[in-house]
């Protein structure tokens, strides 16, 4: 894998200090992905439950 030449010294510095997010992938973070699925599902089910309870009561 070849490393891209930095645009300038500041970009090179930030790349060394903070890392390069462009090379990362969310597929390598299954726990984060599953947490997102749970979070969205929890709020969607909660909203649907509130709507149903408001209609019935």
TrEMBL record:
Keywords: Membrane, Transmembrane, Transmembrane helix. The chain crosses the membrane at residues 34-56. The keyword Membrane applies. It comes from the Bacteria. This is Amino acid transporter.
């Amino acid at each position: 894998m070849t490393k891209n030449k930095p645009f300038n010294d500041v970009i090179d510095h930030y790349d060394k200090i903070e890392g390069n997010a462009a090379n990362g992938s969310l597929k390598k973070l299954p726990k984060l992905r599953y947490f997102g699925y749970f979070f969205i599902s929890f709020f969607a089910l909660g909203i649907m439950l509130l709507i149903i309870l408001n209609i019935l009561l």
